[in-house]
């Protein structure tokens, strides 16, 4: 998808994550797990590539290994701070020394997680940091008879549980967090899919159509011609 510049506004609140980790198996496993939690995730394996990504894309959270090739994780973190980005940094390290954790926090990291870690803890920390990049909203979202709990990954409509696939859940979360504002297809692509998604695909339209069907009647997702969707 086309890169969105740092000057872009109109951010929606589903979490977009950049995973920066030179152990490719670990990086890909973390990305796969976060995507299953309905997050949009990009992956790079060195610090230079990380700097290229943060220069053109808006990320809510960077999961950043400290010991990276080409550009050290510390320098990536410093650059994020220097640019004044709202992005939060969760730093990973193989060292559990308190001095290392303190040093990482002092250069601008928002949180610190030593390896090995429990994936459930990583997910909880990413979600917590993601909430800090945007205006605080209730942990359970309610609108138009729909109740969405991001932490439990549960959706109810008028008391009836609705089973959604991860992308359907992510799209619904973006729409509900927009609080009635129109969300464009481009914004949905940015927040619910990763950068490898073809910007000309009809995946947004198909996902919204399936989501409407699962939510049932009367339809609550409104199509605004030429602009996008809203609830």
Automatic annotation (TrEMBL):
Residues 138-231 form the OmpR/PhoB-type domain. The modification 4-aspartylphosphate is found at residue 65. PROSITE patterns: OMPR_PHOB, RESPONSE_REGULATORY. Coiled coil: none annotated. Residues 138-231 bind DNA. InterPro entries: CheY-like_superfamily (IPR011006), OmpR/PhoB-type_DNA-bd (IPR001867), Sig_transdc_resp-reg_receiver (IPR001789), WalR-like (IPR039420), WH-like_DNA-bd_sf (IPR036388). The keyword NADP does not apply. Residues 16-130 form the Response regulatory domain. Transmembrane segments: none annotated. Keywords: DNA-binding, Phosphoprotein. This is Response regulator transcription factor.
